[in-house]
Amino acid sequence: MLAENGVPTGEDLAQVLPAPERLAQGPVAIAECFQKIPCDPCYHSCLRRAIAPFADINERPRIDHEKCNGCGLCVNRCPGLAIFVVDQTYSDSEALVKLPYEFLPLPKPGDVVTAINRLGQAVGKARVVKVQSGKQMDGTNIVWLAVPQDLSMEVRHFKMEEVR
Amino acid sequence: MLACEICVIGGGPAGLTAALHAASLGASAVIIDRNDYLGGQLIKQTHRFFGSKEQKASERGISISRELSLAVEKEKNIKVLTAATALGYYKDGVVTVEKDERFLKIKPQKIIVATGGAEKTLPFPNNDLPGVYGAGAVQTLVNVYGVKPGRRVLMVGAGNIGVIVSYQLLQAGMEVAGIVEAAPRIGAYWVHAAKVVRAGVPIYTRHTIKGAWGKKEVEGATIVELDEQWKPIPGTEKDFAVDVICLSVGLNPLTEILWQAGCAMKYVPELSGYVPLRNEYLETSVPGIYVAGDAGGIEEASAAMMEGALAGLNAARALGYSAPDFNSRRANILRELESLRSGPVGEKIRKGLEKVTLTERREMRSGLSNLSLLTSNF
To answer: Residue B274: phi, psi to the nearest 5?
Structure first.
């Protein structure tokens, strides 16, 4: 449970996951933000107004998955690194997971990395498809990982293979 | 003797915004800070901040520090004394300062105490071994000087600081063996916790450090599980081979100057220690002495900046400075501060502030009128 070990439960996740029909249509943002804390940069970052206005800054983000096109602006601005974009239409066998990444060195497209779940456990391999970095990202880069379809709701981090 | 209108003690988030807001009304201010640089703890905060857009949310502490310091440098009404330690406050209103091995005297008309907080420590066997650090020290080494304190660390305390510093140690290339928290729940924002857990750092709630071991320096630590009464459960010990133990067990408000000035102080657990009573203008029981930020109760940097802004505006107003939009500016800050504290994570702060923020009526009832809080300039 989140409050005890920092890992959201299946019930927590069920509240924020887009409907399967929406996931079948292409990239969409998922805010894994489960606590009322005073924070609203995701709302201000969204150009499509897909994140509902905050009546109170302590509200949790509510993403209208129909309006969201998975652009990833909010992924970059979330101070909690809690927003991910999942695209299950990437290919028949693979889905894309776009995740915020603040470690160096950055991977390169084509690199094969160890895919990590929310518990910090290795769950398989992932291929780096794209790395959004540069000054405008202000240190919070977005790494696009191609993962097996059945891992698209598991993989939320990765580790580079040990070469330094 | 240096005469000035407002002396701001402490150049962190609260002090810098206090001076900037006072100066924006036309008042002149002197900022004293014992560090060589302005920004206080902000300069080590490499993570993006929470809060609202107005409080620079999603910006990193280090960027906020740069912005505020730059604004202060550009402001002609603000004089900055860095590497200057406030030593004392005297009855005639003089603040004494040590700078460059010289003893300076400052005679301000108003004082804003924005001294921040100091880290607490924890007693356990061998906590005097080299390798046992406070989280602040580790953060200074890593984020200011670019020096790793060791290879593998055990963090004690899963509040925001413990969890954020753990993350920053991972970014610096250190291993974090785990985070130990005596409470049954993680105190940090859960998004921070989730971020370190998926990066491979387990959080052990209901656990405490039993002791450190090592010959000349830390070679490891033993942790133990706690029962419902916070008593160690024998047989649940776990050993960690680590060369750094990092303590992040809370902060106390830094209040020596306030005590010395004779401000009425009260012990408030929710605010993490002794803090000065204050009125809604953040003026203490000693007329002309204001408090802002962690010195008045341990909270977040975003709240410290809002409090600094308020104290700066109020102190300048008390000197006769104003602006056509003064009332709306102050009302906006008050509203933002209130909304920042309005959620479940602000409950403790709200409770604490209720105990120390005196309104005239309540003050009368509790017989505290001799604290001269009624002599506010408004």
So the answer is: -75, 130
User: Which chain B residue lies closest to A117 (C-alpha atoms)?
Assistant: B198
Considering only residues 171 to 190 of chain B, which have any Cβ-Cβ distance to chain A shorter than 8 Å? 171, 184-186, 189-190
Same domain, A21 and A64: yes
- State residue B377's pLDDT score: 35
Which pLDDT score is estimated for B52? Answer: 84
Q: Residue for token digits 């050993």?
A: B239
Indicate yes or no: CB of B47 within 8 angstroms of CB of A79: yes
Residue ranges, chain B, pLDDT below 70: 360-378
In angstroms, the separation between the Cα of residue B46 and the nearest Cα of chain A is 9
Of A2, A78, A103, the CB nearest to B171: A103
Mean pLDDT of chain A: 96
Tens-place pLDDT, residues A63-83? 999 999 999 999 999 999 999
B175 neighbourhood in chain A, CB within 8 Å: none
CB atoms within 10 A of CB B236: 14
What are the structure tokens assigned to B110, written together? 């108003």
A28 neighbors A18 (Cβ within 8 angstroms): yes
End-to-end alpha-carbon separation of chain A, Å? 35
Structural fold of domain B2-118+251-375: FAD/NAD(P)-binding domain (3.50.50)
Burial label, B109 (beta-carbon count in 10 A; 0-12, 13-18, 19+): middle
Number of domains in chain A: 2
pLDDT digits (tens, 9 = 90+) for A17-52: 999 999 999 999 999 999 999 999 999 999 999 999
ipTM for the assembly: 0.96
Closest chain B residue to the Cα of A1, Cα to Cα: B185
Shortest CA gap B150–chain A (Å): 19
Residues of B in contact with A81 (CB under 8 A): 191, 195
Amino acid at residue number B159: G
Residue spans of the domains in chain B: they are 2-118+251-375, 121-247
Considering the domain delimited by B121-247, tell me its CATH architecture. Answer: 3-Layer(bba) Sandwich (3.50)
